[in-house]
Amino acid sequence: MRIPEPTLDGVAEARKKFIEQVDPTNLFYRAATKLVELALSEAREADSLTLAEAVGVLLKTWNDGFYRFGHAKFDKEHLGKIQELMDSPELNLLSFRERSLESLHSEEESSIKTIFESFEKVLGTIGAAKCLHLLAPQFFPLWDRDIAHGYQIYPQKRGTNGENYVKFVNKTREQIEKLKREGFRYEDSLKALDEYNWIHAHQNKRRKSRQP
User: What is the C-alpha to C-alpha distance for residues 127 and 124, in angstroms, rounded to an integer?
Assistant: First the structure.
């Protein structure tokens, strides 16, 4: 089923449902966000957290199935691969950290595709979006497969979904721009929109599974 286009009231209602039914405290998200800030502020200190370790707090909870089903081991080597991607001058990830999604230019789409596929090969389709979002929470939107399907986007083999993610990025940008013209004023706008998508995608899925 398609996810309906978000409205101001719809996003507010979905946030309330998300807090009540899914994550009352947003604990892991808030913790990982703070740890990323800490890792960036203490980057030159010998005993500081690495960015990969900070992001790993969320990946191990939000993306647990990726590890539980054997796609990768959550170990030092895995964290090292994530850190290599974050440190890559070619990907230049931190240049997106202070940007909003509305600032995306069409000529940057090929870079977003490359960045996403590089992370997807290490973290999977869902984990890549979660990791990128933590690094640039106002630029990279969150998704999972149910949400993607709700927008008629169908991820394929791991490491090949950069174009699909760019489609989702552009769709999200259109939604954010429209909502902001109508008075959308969330500081965590992409997180709020993800909660809206999650409620609609997963509630629809549960309703369908209960049908005789």
Answer: 5
Instruction: List pLDDT tens digits, range 159-180.
Output: 999 999 999 999 999 999 999 9
Q: How far apart are CA 201 and CA 149, in angstroms?
A: 8
Residues contacting 40, CB < 8 A, separation 6+: 51, 94
pTM of the model: 0.92
Scored b (16 or more CB within 10 A) or e, 143-155 reads bbebbbbbbebeb
CB 143 within 8 A of CB 116: no
Structure confidence by residue, pLDDT tens digits, 32-77: 899 999 999 987 676 688 999 999 988 988 888 899 888 999 999 9
Radius of gyration of the chain from its Cα atoms, rounded to whole angstroms: 17
**Burial classification of residue 85, based on how many CB atoms lie within 10 Å of its CB (0-12 exposed, 13-18 middle, 19 or more buried):** buried
56 C-beta neighbours (distance < 10 Å), count: 21
4 in Cβ contact with 10 (< 8 Å): yes
Q: Are 160 and 121 in contact (CB under 8 A)?
A: no
Q: How many of the other CB atoms lie within 10 Å of CB of 98? A: 10
Greatest CA span in the chain, whole angstroms? 59
Spatial separation of the C-alpha atoms in residues 141 and 12, rounded to whole Å: 18
